[in-house]
Amino acid sequence: MAEKRYPIRKKRRLRVRFGKDEPTRFAFTGDASDEGMYIITAQPERPGTNVQIELNLPDGQQVIAVGLVCWAKKVPANLLRLANKAGMGVRLTEFISGEDDYKDYLESLRH
Questions:
Q1: Which domains does the chain have, with CATH numbers?
Q2: What is the pTM of this model?
């Protein structure tokens, strides 16, 4: 199936923390773009929920952002690796810090 999003998301496994009020749950990204990311988790938030996100880039930089959950698929934790797209899709709505580092990192993946 062809990718419908623009910009196209790049598969990337980055460590992330997220939560409604504060980022307390640990997870990993499945893919990421300038505008959003897929977070692999057995405990996704409901669509329409704003989440706080702390993302650790490979060079050690930390990105802090707010995102809106667009879709969520909850599965039992023991099936997380087997399920197709278990977790949630988040559209980034605001960067608190690290926006330039995040976008520079994604740009480096395009070359």
A1: 10-109 (2.40.10.220)
A2: 0.85
